[in-house]
Amino acid sequence: MRERFDVAILGAGASGLFAARWLEGLSVCLIDSNLEAGKKLRVSGGGRCNFTNEYVGTEHFVGEERFIQEALDRFGPKELLAWLESEGLSYVKVKNHQYFCAKNSQELLAILLRSLQKQSFKKGERIQGITKLPENRFKIMLSKGSIEATLVLVATGGMSYPLLGASGIGYEIAQALGHEVNPLKPALVGLTLQSSESWMKELSGISLPATLKVENHTLQGDMLFAHRGISGPLILDASLFWKKGSIEISFLSDPLRYLKGSKGFISSSLPLPKRFTKALLDALGIMDGPFDSLQSPLQTTLLNALMAYTFAPAGNFGYSKAEVTLGGVSLGEIDPKTMESRLCSGVFWAGEVLDVTGRLGGYNLQWAFSSAYVAAQGIIQKLSSSSSKGIPHG
User: Fold this and answer.
1) I need a labelling partner for 47 at 20 to 30 A (CA). Which of 137, 145, 239, 258 fits?
2) Are 149 and 27 contacting, i.e. CB atoms less than 8 angstroms apart?
3) Taking every annotated instance into account, which residue ranges of this chain make up the domain RsdA/BaiN/AoA(So)-like insert (predicted)?
């Protein structure tokens, strides 16, 4: 006997689980290749899950602004916090105005999993694809059979964290339905270095605040030197905007105020980790000593390096270390009021699979919830309209 549902949700991550909570009056089947739902959610925010931010605007995202704003207007941080409070979640606001679970991500996940008590969950099932049947239904092919559904929500996420089950199936489905998938690449990820910057690899473990310019963006935050290259919040944010070519890092905006007239060695005079300063001096071919003892050209070289160190990264750490995927299903082919495909009626989209990527700070989970809410309301509206016309579903 064929299994039939009102809605098939492809992906049991943040978007899929959240949408399911708003569809509890319908027959819903969630499908995921993992044996556990919300696997990526469990590790987000260092296990405490930074699920939104006090200040969320289109400037915190890479994507089509009007599309993003539509979802945020419908279900933004205020609505999310109110809903979570009604569900009994305890949370705290920390630096950079981020909201975290008071204890750990399991608290939020438990709330999202409540819908699975009433809905079907096919775990450990790999989605092979979907086809539209003549009677305006969809057949979802799985690794262990198939199901049918009146409507489909694609919430498969991106390519990041493949060890947690991430795959490109959502993009494959989109292309099979005629959607354009904009170029994909790892994002919120560390950057690797060319051999000319190998001196940085010797500084593994050192963190310091800096200002970074990439493309037309100026970012501030902490950067971390790692074995593979450079990382930390500043670099992860920069990876959203870096394509190829140079970036510029300012370690100090006015190093001369610390160096001019100082009788101490340069490495002791600057408010920077001494190990970092010595490595930079070695890379520049400058001997550590009083700044005023340097010849003028060397002084200029050092000051320029401290204020605007410019170099071209070699690449990034890859999807295995990336928090999100940049790129995705083109927004021009999705209705922002419902998240329904403009090309294939009955297929809805939510979350990271779409071409929307947030910066660090809880923005990507807010997008997951906002887009899922809009999609869920669109699904309810679609099924309600079908019922009023006498079209059976479920």
Assistant:
1) 239
2) no
3) 185-324
3-state class (DSSP) for residue 14: helix
Count Cβ atoms within 10 A of the Cβ of residue 271 and give its class: 0-12 exposed, 13-18 middle, 19 or more buried. exposed
Q: Which helix (H) or strand (E) holds 122?
A: strand 120-123
CA dist list (Å): 20 to 55, 286, 388: 26, 61, 23
- The answer, as to whether pTM is greater than 0.90, is yes
Q: Please tell me the distance from the alpha carbon of residue 390 to that of residue 12, in angstroms, as a whole number.
A: 31
> In the chain, which ranges are continuous DSSP H helix?
14-22, 39-43, 65-74, 77-86, 105-112, 169-176, 233-238, 256-259, 266-269, 274-284, 296-307, 363-388
Return per-residue pLDDT of the chain as tens, 394 residues.
679 999 999 999 999 999 999 999 999 999 999 999 999 998 898 889 999 999 999 999 999 999 999 999 999 999 999 999 999 999 999 988 999 999 999 999 999 999 888 899 999 999 999 999 988 899 999 999 999 999 999 999 999 988 888 899 999 999 999 999 999 999 999 999 999 999 999 999 999 999 999 999 999 999 999 999 999 999 999 999 999 999 999 999 999 999 999 999 999 999 999 999 999 999 999 999 999 999 999 999 999 999 999 999 999 999 999 999 999 999 999 999 999 999 999 999 999 999 999 999 999 999 999 999 999 999 999 999 876 555 556 6
- The pair of structure tokens assigned to 184 is 């994909």
Q: Which long-range contacts (CB under 8 A, 24 or more apart) does 297-305 make?
A: 302/255, 302/266, 303/255, 303/256, 305/280
Domains of the chain in sequence order: 4-185+325-388 (3.50.50.60), 191-316 (2.40.30.10)
Which helix (H) or strand (E) segment holds residue 187: the answer is strand 181-187
Structure tokens at 124: 């450990």
What residues contact 278, with CB distance under 8 A and at least 6 apart? 267, 288
